[in-house]
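Milestone M4 deliverable, item 7.
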Amino acid sequence: MKSLLISYLSLTARLAVRFKRYERALELYADIEKMLHGSPDAAAPIMAQGHVRGLMGDRAWARADFERALAVKPDDAIAHFNVGWVCDQQGLTDEAVRHFERALAINRDLDRAWYGMGLIHVRAMRHAEAKRAFLEVVRIEPRNFPAWYQLGMTHHVLGETVELDGLRRHVVKFNPRIAYLIDRDIAKLKEQEQQEAGIAGATPAAPA
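Output delivered:
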């Protein structure tokens, strides 16, 4: 009976989120949390509350919920990823990396944690490390379209034209838009580089 009620409340909460009734969803997930108090299963409704708070734009509360979930279930890879993702959004890169790495130590095939690591590497201009991370993502989840885009851009930055051409031929088979976005943004980068080179060339030499 209890499991049926939890299933019903979960469905109702998901519908509330779908229709942007976030406060109602929080109430329902809190009720489920109380019903599962003392069990590691309580981590799921706690994380759900964090996701709802994230949709509401409250990152601090979302992080608090994800950390509460970790307190209930310390070896939950998804919870570590969630904390890491919010930390990254808050500019806490070291904390984000720590949680992503912990998530991957628990579940090596958690594609979203590899993706988060890849984005951090891109921002730090560690493009070889970013490439390795995005390759892991598409190995685990071949339909992760943002990862294919990021991988294509990384190939370009690294000057890997053969790999980039192969990626284009591959992704155009199942998502031509990704190939289009890669080509478009590479063209923009090249144009920007040409403009910067032109400005540098037009800069007068310093007097002797």
